[in-house]
Design goal:
The protein is α+β, with helices and mostly antiparallel strands. The protein contains two helices and five strands; from the N terminus they run E-E-H-E-H-E-E.
Length: about 90
């Protein structure tokens, strides 16, 4: 999903990629990467210059798709990485 805000502590960052989930039995087949690329393409078509997301555990996955670490923080009781992608 492409949404305006996903962290109530980082309202200055917008828009966000959110809701990416691939069932464990289907991981490693490019499904997640295809979903992320689709949202990036849609965001680019809308004139978005930078996307954001947060993840507690998938920073390596997104880094492999060109996303960069913005910060590490604690959010809703979890240590998360806030990362961004320049469109």
């Amino acid at each position: 999903m492409l949404i305006p805000h996903d962290m109530d502590t980082r309202m200055e960052l917008s828009p966000w990629l959110a809701g990416v989930f691939v069932a464990p039995s289907h991981r490693g087949r490019g499904v997640g990467a295809a979903m992320v690329r689709r949202v990036i393409d849609d965001a680019t078509a809308l004139g978005v210059r930078r996307l954001h997301l947060y993840t507690p555990s998938a920073q390596h996955f997104y880094s492999g798709l060109g996303w960069s670490l913005t910060e590490r923080t604690r959010y809703r009781g979890m240590d998360v990485a806030v990362i961004s992608y320049g469109c």
